[in-house]
Amino acid sequence: MKKINKLITVAMFFVFALIGTTEAKTKSDIPSVTVKSMKGRNVNTSTFNNDGKPFIINFWATWCKPCILELNNINDKYAAWQKETGVKIIAVSIDDSRNSRRVAPFVKGRGWDYEVYLDENSDFKRALNVNNPPHTFLYDGDGNLVYTHNGYAPGDEDELYEKLKEISKKK
User: Fold this and answer.
1) CATH superfamily to which 31-170 belongs
2) CA pair distance 133, 96, nearest whole angstrom
3) I want to staple 67 with a disulfide (CB 3.0 to 4.6 A). Which of 94, 130, 134, 146 is the partner?
């Protein structure tokens, strides 16, 4: 009888743990992974938000020409996007630990006004099933994924902007 009670207790624990996990995933589509800020501070990605406004997470690398082109083209329009929608861009570099020292001067040299984080071990990249950069995710103000795009061709930023305007109007 003790074994049966113990089995029931263990089974109930897993059922409640599973229910709790499901609820957490419905509140936000952003997995909980640790990345580094440009100043070396650990940041949990589940805290990414924009105070109820939309935000974009963009995976890129210093060696990725389409990534740089995309972020440069978005940067040209970023101030206008922010003014109209309140959007924030979070650029996540997937440069490994050997190249991550280059990221800060790279970003500064281009004048990008994005929040930039380092995913040196590609944990966040794997958690979001990103295969190749650039990969862009658009989240609404509640942290729900509403649009994703892989790769870059000139003009893709216009499609992203249209999606951004759509979700901004819903609020």
Assistant:
1) Glutaredoxin (3.40.30.10)
2) 13
3) 134
